[in-house]
Amino acid sequence: MFDIRVESPDVLVGAIQSVTIPANGRPVANFSIRDSIGRGAVGLTAGSSGQVRFTIAKLTPGAMGNSSAWQSYINTVSTWDAGSVMQATSERTGTLVDHGDGTYEYTFVTDVTMARNPVDLSAIIYDATLTHRAVLQVSGGTVVDAQNVVFDFVPNGSAVSFTREVVDTDNCNTCHGTLTAHGSRYEAKYCVTCHNPGTAMQANSVDMKVFIHKLHRGAHLPSVQAGGSYVLVGSRGTYDFSGVGFPQPINNCRKCHNGEAGAPNQTSEGNHWRQVPTREACGACHDDINWSTGAGHVAGAQSSNMGCAGCHTEAKVEKVHATETKSPNAPTLIVDDTGNPLTVFAYELGDVTADGTNHPVVKFKITRDGAAFDPTAALPAGITGGPSFLIAYAQPQSGLSTPGDYNNLGRSAAQPASVSLANLRAGTAGTLSGPDTGGFYTATFTGANAWPAGATLRAVALQGYFSQTVTVGGASTTYGRHTTSVVKGVTGDAKRREVTVDSKCLSCHESLELHGGNRMNAVGVCVTCHVPNLSSSGRGMDPVLFSAQVRNAAYPDGGLPTAEAHEASLAAYEYFEPTGDPSTFTPPVDPLAWPEVSNTFKDLVHGLHGSHARSTPFVFTRDRGTSGAYVFDWSHVTYPQVNGNCAACHTDTGFSVALPSTALPSTQRTTTGVAGETRAQILAARGTVPNSTDLVSSPTAASCSGCHDTVLAKAHMQQNGGALDVSRGAYDTSGAVETCAVCHGAGKTADVAAMHPLP
């Protein structure tokens, strides 16, 4: 035994052994709390200052088209200026008996046979034949490891056969790490006992299926897109979810609830999303429907859920939630009018070598729907476009003879050469041959498509995609067949360090389709372009093009901006000139004043995902010429994981501050260093990176300041050898040594693993 008032282990194990409901209607729960080696915890108390509380709810069957639902017996009234609503809650003032051996008995204050809605006093009918759920919460005081203990039972003693298990907590935690709400509640089976139908915060339902759907669609709710907001107001504060962005396609319903046989975290009612359509669940995402008037709904007004399943059959719901990209939780692809799903391509790289003139010789394989695809032949009907190869490498820089990062030295903006499969097929960039006995084709590059003499860290990536044109709903539609990118180093060359795990990125993003879908699901490909010599490009934007795009007026050559360019540049103008008049906007405009940041992969990803922790917004602009100016303000990003959990993305050692001595500094600003520099000078500087006048930050400081960007944090980094925004010339000659690992290294006083909440 141990006394939890003076000792609280890091791990507790709670269990409910039984719940009975005697004739007086006051449930009696028997439970135990032990540590990881089986010692019983004594000293738990109930009451307002105790650590024990309970909820109890019944599972009401679905009828008349309605879904089944949990209904709490314990409720309170929440009053606001327009009236009162019922809110489910818990109790903690019952009688708790401590048996002195780690086991306890709790007798509820609530009489479930007399439960009523506290607003209208209608009865909450107790039925001993229904499934009931009691949940024990142990938290507060000296308890370190909060407990949510769930126990399902039927009061008359029957076995539990009627269930509602829609979401598994482990599904939530693939994105959230350890999802905790209200301080100590982390189990989805607990959440639903309070987030019942009829429970609200002011006028907004917080029924689980409504609240969670609306929250996760957030910024993309039709009501928010139309200028509204999704805000919950309660006694403990105001919660604005209008900026939440689901990090994968919102129609990927299986990500959260999956009832498919063999699915990870399968739940018995996980397919309710397509089997039990209701106004409440579906209308939460599709919140531009007015059920009373029928506005926004093809079938018109609906006063109940009785007719939903008649039109929205399981097959039809599946079809309208089909996705363009196949992924583990999105197996259903869009189907054309002939009944065929969209095609799926896959890429594979074999050996990558260099010929005698440093030209890449690449063995590769492409499959279409699992079958061999001939890249040397004319494209099949309905298929256009195709992937490209990227040629990455490193050359001596910053005093390093063999940098540990790609730098693509000598290339404009440090970007790797790109060679399309179409050009190889046409013979303008190389040749194609094959297949060999393993089904691999060989691409041999020619001309300027070579690695520089003496290059190290040589690698080739295959990225980009084919497009497919099919008829869907009677209309000819073209879909990009975004395909997972692949990268491989030259046989015998040193390989770039790998510090992240693609599957960890995809546990949240499911399919990570970037740059229009050209780069997908592979960090190893991302880092071939997002190299230390790359910074954001917005300051090079042509002000004449930009102003024409803002006004949707003709370019000097008479051409008109595309709709994409107009929308992008108008959004950028409104961001920087919120009180301006786009219709009268004319040059001069000063893109030179736009923000610029490092686009090194580690700096970019830390700055983006760490936006919630930053003291200054992470903002930059991108010059896409005739495609428009793009402003990226990541302030809205709310990292769903446990704050600071480096292990959510990195390998076990990939978050070490002891970066290899071969790591390059990050370019924060590409500049001539001349006051009043012109656009032409900046464009020239981007063409010759790295320049001695560029502003750079040392590798570790650049990475850590992505999240830790306060003045004090930066001063700390600089005091300990870090460089922030210094000229490259000064950095390269300073012999700077970052001493971060002295304190933040493995096993040290402020070890990163100790200072960040790693699991």
Write a structural description.
The structure is a single chain. This protein is of the alpha+beta class. It has four domains: 1-163, no CATH class; 165-321, no CATH class; 345-528, no CATH class; 538-755, no CATH class. It is 19% helix and 23% strand. It has 20 helices and 33 strands. The strands form eleven sheets. Strands 17, 18, 19, 22 and 23 form a five-stranded antiparallel beta sheet that branches. Strands 20, 21, 24, 25 and 26 form a five-stranded antiparallel beta sheet that branches. A hairpin with a 2-residue loop joins strand 13 (200-201) and strand 14. The two termini are 27 Å apart. The model has no long low-confidence stretch (mean pLDDT 95).
Concise account of the structure shown:
This protein has 759 residues and is α+β, with helices and mostly antiparallel strands. The protein contains 20 helices and 33 strands. It is 19% helix and 23% strand.
